[in-house]
């Protein structure tokens, strides 16, 4: 990307914004920058192109609306060539790393915290346990192609999975439960909503506070029909899409017969 020393011939701020957006757009398209490549931070781009940070910010907003770039905030924040949106298929109950690997992406997990809690409210209801039952609460951040993707909170029964917190929790939790505790997964109920990032979620996902998040609330069952997991997953809205499969009434009838 070539530097510019003047924006006087752009017709004012609007012209400068359009010019900068066009140059970055061309650098991504013609320059062959790979998805996930760091382009720079606002300050760096302003210096490189000889424009104000206001112009940079407006140009980035335009490019972001076209899904060409991804912005992260915080100490390691910056502007990146947007990775393609990831597809979360709700038709199969598999762990997130399996979804990501199937799409050719490197995965990563950071365990943010674990603790033993008393079941209460919605979690107790979904896991069908009493309010005094002990649960393991596991909080993790998930990454795809080196960039933050989601934060999640998982609840499972401490009685059903003794010693779970002594195990490595950076891989697929489902794979761990199947291999160590010999469970057999059945179906799951998943509810999709949206929420605004709170301060902690925003810091982990490198987003501004209040940024939109895609929320998947899930209760997973064993083949026997007994619930074994309740979780809340908060995805960066700009990185994830959800696929749900439906069938026609005739198809459902044939399946039943």
Describe this structure in words.
With 257 residues, the protein is an alpha+beta fold. It folds into two domains: 74 residues, Winged helix-like DNA-binding domain superfamily/Winged helix DNA-binding domain (Arc Repressor Mutant, subunit A, Orthogonal Bundle), CATH 1.10.10; 158 residues, Chorismate lyase. Helix content is 30%, strand content 33%. The strands form three sheets. Strands 5-6-7-10-9-8 form a six-stranded antiparallel beta sheet. Strand 9 and strand 10 form a beta hairpin. Helix 2 packs across helix 3. The longest helix has 17 residues.
Q: How are the elements arranged and paired?
A:
Layout (H helix, E strand, L loop, with lengths): L12 H17 L8 E3 L1 H8 L3 H13 L3 E4 L5 E4 L4 E4 L6 H7 L4 E12 L2 H7 L6 E11 L2 E11 L15 H9 L3 E12 L2 H7 L6 E11 L4 E10 L3 E4 L5 H8 L1
Parallel strand pairs: 4-11
Antiparallel strand pairs: 1-3, 2-3, 5-6, 6-7, 7-10, 8-9, 9-10
In short:
This protein has 257 residues and is of the alpha+beta class.
Q: Can you tag this structure with a few keywords?
A:
257 residues, alpha+beta, Arc Repressor Mutant, subunit A, Chorismate lyase, 6-stranded antiparallel β-sheet, 3-stranded antiparallel β-sheet, 8 helices, elongated, disordered N terminus, disordered C terminus
Q: Give the averaged pLDDT, no decimals.
A: 81
CATH topology of the largest domain: Chorismate lyase
Q: List the total number of helices.
A: 8
Q: Give, in spatial order, the strands making up the sheet with the most strands.
A: 5-6-7-10-9-8
| CATH architecture descriptor of the largest domain | 3-Layer(aba) Sandwich
How many DSSP-defined strands?
11
Whole-number total of structural domains: 2
Order of SSEs, N→C?
HEHHEEEHEHEEHEHEEEH
User: What is the name of the CATH class of the largest domain?
Assistant: Alpha Beta
Shape call: elongated
What structural category characterises the helix and strand content?
A: alpha+beta
The helix fraction, in percent, is 25-40%
**Uncertain segments of ≥5 residues (pLDDT<50)?**
1-11, 251-257
Largest β-sheet summary: 6 strands, antiparallel
